[in-house]
User: Fold these one by one.
Assistant:
Number 1:
Amino acid sequence: MASNPDGLERLLQGNKAFANRFTAAEPELLDKLSQGQSPETLWLGCADSRIPETTVCDCKPGDIFVHRNIANVITPTDLNSSSVLAYSVGVLKVKRVIVCGHTKCGGATAALDDGDLGETLNAWLGPVRELRRKHQAELEKLPSTDARANRLAELNVVLSLEAVRQHPVVKEAMETRGLTIHGIIYDVPTGQLRLLGGE
């Protein structure tokens, strides 16, 4: 089977270029990272391919501990995000937690109505759709689907921040060692981050 230069081979060649460039520029960093990790930031973001957190924040490997999912949904009952919070905050002792939503979010756009997306996505976007229902009057005043989806993405960050605040390990870290939490929006057309608020 012929390899596709835009597929797996492209990724493997890209990795070789990265490893060569990185080891030449900072030969000690990868060795240091092989000994363990001590990131200062936990990033809870969307799985969208346009928002690679290390790239958009101009950071290096080892700087950011990451959890990403569709529409950056964080709920108290999700074992996946809860385990990431427990490990990064409780074991790695990150100093800050960031929940990052973004403009042009397909999940937020899909949550603007109750169209059938299949069992898995219907269930996953349930909290975002419920949030839309709660803020329906506000959202309907906005002039376009894009504007409504962007506002829903902001509201979803705020809701996710509340779930983060309620996590027992996070609550303890905020009280005992000054852990901070922050909500941000990444604007896809400009590449800029905008702070929504934090503690």
Note: The longest helix spans residues 145-166.
Number 2:
Amino acid sequence: MIDRAEANFFGRDTWHVAQKPHPVRALVLGANGKLGNMICAVFGAQAAPRLELHPVSRDGSIGLGWSVGQSPDLLPRVDAVVALWGVTPAHGAPLSDNSGLALAAMDLGRRLGADRVLHCSSAAIYGSSDRPLHEEDTPAPASAYGAAKADMETVLRTPQSGDGPVPVILRIGNVAGAESLFAALGRDGPVTLDRFSDGHGPDRSYIAPGDLAKVLEVLCTLPRNRLHRVYNVAAPRVTAMADIVRAAGRDLHWRPAPDGALRRVALDTARLAEVCAMPDRSSDASWLVADWQRWSGRG
């Protein structure tokens, strides 16, 4: 179990972490990205005695400097690699680069002695559903980004040569501070949401950056034989986007939802809960906003 100080930070003593006799060394790729910045801020401020973090950024602005194609000789030997890098539509690069980055992370993990590599996939690989989406559901992406992440997962399932690390795919829901709604909250003016025929706005599976950091700690330190190859990663209940806007104290405007807009995307997180049970408050809009403000420097 986690120590009392960490339990107080997360609200309840509900996180289950496998204790190891020495800290697990983890390399974090993409430390200078929006998500990587917040995750590294969490680990920099909160004690994680089971985890020794080694951030890596392409330009060396955070942690060690390294990019694909460079020699890994200057990087430390590690037990795990956390690949927070990736290409989104906002980057302007081909979305297919996600597959290449995933393979590069696997190769780097092998060279550095890691026994696992955690890869960031997305809830966007799923199709529309009225029920919570489970890891065993067949991917049916409705966007080019979701299709690119599904292709990345397929590449990672291709057997790797040798005795390298195992890939662990994280189908992450909306991360507070690293998606479009929170980008809108970071700008001035009212926030506009889609309104559906039932009179409500979108519901999504969210996770706060501080909670995601704890999930990463758990999956880096869990014995390898207990790891599943795919996890949905989110708080256990969906959160209404309108509640997030109101919790941030912002004006909310509505527009009719366009054809194809998704009313609800809910992830089934029972598999994750087996090893990492979320605090009750993790789905609360106020918690998501406060955690975003804390770790993005807006608090």
Note: Confidence is low (pLDDT under 50) at residues 1-19.
Number 3:
Amino acid sequence: MKRLINIAVVMVMSLAGMQNASARLTAAGAFADAPAPLFPLLDKNARLDMIDYFNSGSATPTQNALQGKSRVTALTPDDIKIAMTDASSYQISILPYGNDSIIAVIQTVAAPAHDSHISFYNRRWEKMSAPLFKAPDLDAWLTSDGDKDASNVAALIPFMLAKYDYDNATAVLTLTNNLQEFLSPDVYKMVSASIHPVLKYRWTGKMMEPMGK
């Protein structure tokens, strides 16, 4: 009998562990529980305040460590957008990944044009080692006209600048060409027909896969 009781206890504990592992991961919860180095301008209490303010319909901002104002600008169970400073913002999205979920973090900085990068983490905020997304190089941005004059286009564009935005409803990551914010009008006019205005990637459940141009 004692052995049966011990087995039952182990089974209950195992089930509890499985339920905990598959607990619903939300964007707000991920933001609140993120390690301090990821959002050094906001401690956990400040992040929770920001979520509460948004949910209550208040426009009250939260003071960050730079004495600036931070606020949540959009929130759904799977997405949260944060205006961190006047020159930086974040989007946290929850993505399905096998039988679990992972966290995608898009950071956008105006330096001076808006430019983004994306990182991926598991639910414990450990960086994913799998290659889930490869940022496109200049060749990927070239139109058919740009392909014909690739060397001259490359000479005029020192680096690409693109703003990222993920739409959980369609599982599409959109990269918007922001060169117009950086290049002089004359130079941009010379290269505008050579560079795609946007590139799109679809989340397959395993990676961000390029969509047709």
Note: The two ends are 67 Å apart (CA to CA).
